Amino acid sequence: MEELLSLSIIAVLVYWLIRRRRTAGNAQSRPDQPATPAQRASRKRSSTDDSARLDPDAAARREVIERHFELNQAIEMAKAAGDLDRVLSTARQSIAQLPEFAMAWSEQRRQERGHADGAAPEPEWESLTVPALVAIHQIAPARGERELIVWTREVVRQIPGMEDQLDQLRRDLEDVEACEAVLAHLADNPGVKQAGMARGLGLDGHRVRSLLHWLERGHDIVRVPSGKTHRLYLPRDAPDSGVDEAPSGATGLTTALRSVSVELAAVDVETASGDRDSACAIAVAVVSRGRIVETRRWYVRPPDNAYRASNVRIHGIQPHRTADAPPFPEVWPEVQDLIGGLDVLAHNAAFDGSVIRRSLAQHRAHDAAAPTLFCTCQLSRRLWPDLDNHTLPVVAAHCGVPVEDHHDPVADAVAAAGIGVAICATLNVSSIRKAHEIVAGRAS
């Protein structure tokens, strides 16, 4: 009897333990009873501790990766402050860390995705290394930083999947040599015009324009007006141009132009790639009574947030800047509200207009019609045919309108607005639409 009682007690205890385990398992798996924050934190700590025990290098990898992104952020802050020396010094630190970062990032991605050793996923270098390398591409050639570019190339060679960047660094070295040739030519031929320089160096006119733009941003050359064109000098050789500085508060327009009563809006669009539906930023400058009264910029997420390195090099907008930005149709109503019923212009309106139309069409936003854009580039060709060329910086300089940072959308929109006001002043009209009609009538 006692033996039977013992067996019954044991059976009851076993049954009770089984029921308790099942009840606990059901409680954890029930979707209507989520874990509390304390439980989630405890599980996360436990998981992290387990990972650290299984992979003692995980903490070191995280530290390397965090340091890399801190340096990227520091580069962006230095750019925003206009401190190019700090941009390059920080970029150098970031690039020195790239091989270590590449290994840490690849290993982390392999761990996260459960890849076996030797089967790491694509490391996505283009978006992760862009701040430091773009800083080198944008600044080093114009500054003649040959040694920095060569050193960067040697570091990048240590990292798999960087063939495009190596090719760009090769072109950077060619740009250094070309900039040196331009400066040497100016030293021997002070006052030469752009067309004469292109002939003297045997370079394409577009290539010379790009080189001069870089050197001018670095204050390595000076343009002095000469009739309807400009002569080029090294700063030490430049004569007094006789042009007074614009008074403070002129917002990019000279005193004479500010007196013109013109109402208009100017737009500028930047793209992430060569595709016309890849808008990544748009800016508007509004002019009232001949003065810039409002500017605004919108960042836009291009399709798949895909960028081409050559486009990033031009405008400096990077994938992380637009990763969480809205698509073009979502910002377009705000652009339309700002433009209102004003006449709208752009410098090279064929490009900006097609980007706007295709970016809207790409999202099937057919109800958001693009405005008619008047082209200050085409108008300047008719009014001032003897300029060296009719790019935005050259036409703006002719009109006395400085371009603060070419290819920044706000700066370009402001410059285009200033050109539009100058065109209206030249023709003594109060609207860009009327200026277009007069120039079109002359052509016919």
Describe this structure in words.
This protein is α/β, with parallel strands linked by helices. The chain has three domains: 58-116 and 126-173, no CATH class; 178-235, Orthogonal Bundle (Arc Repressor Mutant, subunit A), CATH 1.10.10; 255-443, Ribonuclease H-like superfamily/Ribonuclease H (Nucleotidyltransferase, domain 5, 2-Layer Sandwich), CATH 3.30.420. Helix content is 59%, strand content 10%. It has helices at 2-29, 37-54, 58-81, 84-96, 98-113, 125-128, 130-143, 146-156, 163-188, 194-201, 205-217, 255-258, 309-315, 319-322, 328-339, 349-362, 376-383, 392-398, 409-427, 432-443; strands at 222-226, 229-233, 264-271, 279-288, 291-299, 344-346, 373-375. Strands 5-4-3-6-7 form a five-stranded mixed sheet, with helices on both faces. A two-stranded antiparallel ribbon has the order 1-2. Helix 3 packs antiparallel against helix 4 (84-96) and helix 4 crosses helix 7 (130-143). The longest helix has 28 residues, at 2-29. It is flat and about 110 Å long. The N and C termini lie far apart (121 Å). The model is unreliable at 27-34, 115-123 and 241-259 (pLDDT under 50).
